[in-house]
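Lab meeting notes turned into a lecture example. A postdoc, R.K., suggested we walk through two folding results consecutively so the class can see how the record format repeats. The first protein's sequence and structure tokens come next.
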Amino acid sequence: MVSLVSVVGLWAFSGGLLGYFFYPLGVRLGVKWVMNLAENGMVYPAYMKPPFPSESRFYLFAIENPREVLRGDRMQFSMKGPYVYRTYLEREGIKFSSKQERVTFDSRRRMYLEEGRSSSMEERMWLMNPILPGTVKSVRSLLADRLPFQRLSQPILFQSVNALLDSYKERLIMRTTPNQFLQGRPIELLIAVTSLAARFGLDSLVPPGPPKNIFGLAFAQNETLDRIEIYTGLGSSADRFAEVARWKDKSEVDVWRGKCRRINGTNGELYKPFLEEGEPIPIFLGPMCRSFPLEPVLAGEPPPGTVIIEESVLLVPKSAGSSNSSRGPEVGAGANGSVSSLEREELTPAAASTNVNTNVNTSANVNTNANTNVNNAHAEGNQALLGEHRPQSVRAGAGLQGLEYELSPSLYMGARSNPSNRCFCEHPRALDCQLDGLVTMGPCFFGAPLFFARPNFKGADARILNTTSFLQTVGPNALPDKQSFLLDQTTGTVLAVNLTLMGVFKLLRQRYMRDLERLRNVTYAPSFATSESVQLPDQFAMPIYMLQQANQYHRPVCLVAAAAGLLLLLLGRLFRATRSPAAKPRDSVQPEVAPISRTGSQTRSQTRSQTGSRRSSQRSSQSSA
């Protein structure tokens, strides 16, 4: 029993010490062995065909004053939705490199409408037609800016464009339904232009359009293949797991300039294991065709990108009667798409401060009380955001803990605040390039004048905010301001994603174009918002949960095991010590017993000798007789 206690104690003590010091090394080796895209590995099947969907929500911004907008008033909106889709990821054309260090595939999103959870898809509303701004931009860059004698040629050109748009019933603001805007409608104008260009061999002159010449937000995602090549984490690519090597068979994004062309980081679906706390993570998103960092949300600090909007940020018009004259100089379509004089004026602080009426912030339809209410609402929203000191480690479903990251605020900064973003600009002197709040997306979306913004224009410059009445009519908190990525620190697994973005179109006043010639000089009109959310299901979260529990408790468990083993060793020693005094009295008695035993033996020997002598004497007497 004593030896068994000692052996158990020795094992527990040794195991506790070894686990305390060598468990992290074992976890690191095990995670690196698992986290790769080997064709017969554990991650590969779930990544190439994720068995669970994400949830996509669309919101549309209906225009409430279409007639007034065409006369130069600011747009007023109402938000419609949500329109909920169940989205699955699919991979096609999977091909490994010779050493299986890289894998190439086409990624596609399959979206299925959840009718029971969505608003009516057949409600008729006034929505901005995204085809028309892109068409006008293409006509201006391909023809209008290149024709000689522009004062004579431009009126003829744009009148011809007006007639063409009329024949196919394409207007800037159209009475349509969410079903057509999301599920798609054929663009007869584009179909006719592409077929005519193909007949005369002029396909290369026609700018790319939506898939199959059908415009629809959900339709485009269903029909778009995103070809990407990433490192598998095998062989020499072990330290580059999930990093993007090539996108659309190119090692750079050729629609940008300079360092903005670089592809850097993972693809946003997989991340390297063993994330460093407090360090940003570079990612490359194909739909946004750019690289940018995810910033960690630190404990005790407001979320990145939180901006305090003061009362003075929204400028107040001088008078209600100055709407027509306040539009400022006419937009000129200069060579190579040069910016308007209005935009140049707005980039000058003196012009913005001395002549409010020449700035696009002015409007006849918004009074002082409306501006003050919006500013107060923004102040309340900022106070709420500053009060939410989100911790760095956030709890997800199934009891999982993860590190929280958000889209970097630098993504939305203009060239003034972040000069490194200048190479993303189509026109470096334009408002949308210089001022904060917009992300240029046009080169990634068929050349359309499209931008992404944070929900509710959070962090946007006042000169962009005030080109419409969005905040006054929809409200500063209409959309959830969520841009969070929750990642497991050990494996880099995505535990949850909540991302919301607004789609904003840029409208410039264009002379001779019927729907554009009386618009405000420049308008940044929100058209839609998209929200993406996904959470790792419980059945897939269980291994990560067990690993997190082991990581959290292995040190105390190992210390307890070592302490228990040490205690058992001491108990075994104590038992041995208490048993040894009971054996010593038997040894001490033996010297006293020994003489007695020897005396007894001597007595027995003397008795035997005496008996023998008597017997011998008797035999001798008998013999003499």
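The second example is placed directly after the first for contrast:
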Amino acid sequence: MLFLMNTDNKICVNCGKTFNRVKMERSKARFEKMIACSRECLKEYNNVEGTKRLDPATELPFVSGVSKRTVGGEKQIFHRYNLSRVIKTGELRGYFKEDWKKA
């Protein structure tokens, strides 16, 4: 017996609901690119409002010229939050982009 129905399932990144390729009537190639269950969820996911990330050591926002970190053996000093850019992917999603300078 030939099975024509493929039951591919994904979880929406915005609302967490499971959505199915067969119910949405999408081709396999198109379904692989999808990350949200609907256009409304995708718009809500893409329109992220930024917040300032807190310094893990003090639990307060980073202070320009005072907050320090070490990345790859290089010491850096916090310069500013870039309030016009919001990180849209990864574990820092939803936070403003941070500018750091070499110490």
